Prior knowledge:
Elements: H1 2-41, H2 43-50, H3 59-66, H4 68-80, H5 84-99, H6 120-135
Amino acid sequence: MSIDITVALIGLLGAFCGMLISIFVVRYMLKISARHKFAAAFTDELAVLKSGIVGDECATLQMFEASFEKHNRAYVERWSVLGKCQKRRLEKKWNKFCHGDRDLNPDDRFTYLASNAYEEKESIKTAIKNIESLIST
């Protein structure tokens, strides 16, 4: 009789361990999937920026404003699967991407790329640096 209880307890312990491993694997896969989707959301813009073709004045600003919804969706999806410390790190880099080193006024998104201090080529370099920093998180 005690052998039956021992076998049942070992079976329950095995099932519990299997459940924990499954939860870990699913969370890990969600994080990896969100990370890939987040990086993929920026590939078009990164390809244009790295091609070195400078379009109109403030082209970088216009390109980011036009694709902000796509980037924001990917950001929210990535943010939702991260832990507390990783969320703070991502938020900091996201704010730098959106606002540069300026105040966080929501109406002033990407204006740091069109300020008088930058030429378009400088804006492109800054944007590439901010995107690469953001997707490496």
